[in-house]
Amino acid sequence: QPYSLQIDFASSEILFKDEFSPDDLKNLSPITSSILKSILYDESEASTTESSPVITPVIDCPTIGKIDLALLPEQCRTRAGSKKFQHIIAKCRPEDIEKIVIVMAPHMGALMTDVYGNYMCQSLIKSANSSQRLMLLSSMRGHLLRISKDSQGTHSLQGLICLSSTSEEELIYRDKFSGHIIEMAMNINASHVIQRLLVTLKDTSFIIRELLGHVTELAIDKLGLCVIKKCIGNHEVYKELLSNAHILVQDPYGNYAIQQTLDLWGEASHEVLANKFKGKVAQLCIQKYASNVMEKCMHFEYLREALAAELLNEEKMKMVLNCAYGCYVVKSAAELGSQRLKDGLRKIFNAVSHQLHQKKLKSRW
């Protein structure tokens, strides 16, 4: 179906309109102007302003032969067609890639989520240079949120984000995803897009800004946790995690956020965590998920001495040793602790051993 196309390089957007004149080509480079003329017009009519724009894009690939690109948008929606054009793109010369990009740009929003077309999109994205990639991204900017949530589109979009290297690309992502970060972070497909943005973009402040105030909510969500783990290095995110550490350690997912905080921030987090766990150590040691964090804490001297001291109490030790989770925590404290701590634990154990009734745990005692 005939259409006309104009490239506005000032905003890097591809716009479609009913009228197109060769005068629109004046500010384009000779190569791009020539390509657009050959794609949008019959060669015999390229110099006239009254000619009807007709797509007649053809590339001549040395190893494959002549290929009519007008068939590309529809054919790549089939399994055989997608595979064929992936092979063609791999063999094409740079000038042919330019033609393919211009022909495919108007269809990228739909093809990125197509069960077969998305593979062709991924191949094209990998073969495009930075300006061509920006053209493709600009053409689908109105569809980015939908693509990110699609099971096919998320893979194609992540591949595009991986290659981002210009401020114009980052500007488009910021413009289209701002206001949707929390929604995307908890979406099974879009969550991976947010993670890729956090790893790839130079300026992730627009993402962090929306996450703040929702860090605890995300950390206890299966998908949100993956996003939080990518930005624990941010001081504001780190502070919000620690403010609710005593809650997060008891959550099936939140406990992993605290464990990674320990790994990444090290000694800087020890005092805050010790204060958060103070008076609750025995209870946390026998809780299924919190016990994992307590056991990890025993690997750090400051935390070990501060937390294990609470266990040097007959009633608390009896409660901890009668629980399988608690036994692991005490074992780590005994193996890694100072001689003074080992002696204290031995003394308490001897005092309560006759009151331990969980015989199936006897081997661990």
Question: What's the structural blueprint in terms of helices and strands?
Answer:
Layout: E1 4-8, E2 13-17, H1 30-40, E3 58-61, E4 65-68, H2 72-75, H3 79-91, H4 94-104, H5 108-111, H6 117-127, H7 130-139, H8 144-149, H9 153-162, H10 167-177, H11 181-185, H12 190-200, H13 205-211, H14 215-219, H15 222-230, H16 235-243, H17 245-248, H18 254-265, H19 267-277, H20 281-285, H21 290-297, H22 301-308, H23 314-321, H24 324-336, H25 339-352
Helix pairs in contact: 1-4, 3-6, 4-7, 6-9, 9-12, 12-15, 18-21, 19-22, 21-24, 23-25
Distance between the termini: 79 Å
What is the average of the pLDDT values? 83
Q: Radius of gyration, rounded? A: 30 Å
What is the number of E strands?
4
The main sheet comes to:
2 strands, antiparallel
User: Reading side by side through the largest sheet, how are the strands ordered?
Assistant: 1-2
β-strand amount: under 5%
| SS element count, helices | 25
Q: Helical percent range?
A: 55-70%
Query: Structural class per helix/strand content?
Result: mainly alpha
Low-pLDDT stretches? 1-20, 38-56
The ordered H/E elements are EEHEEHHHHHHHHHHHHHHHHHHHHHHHH
Shape: elongated
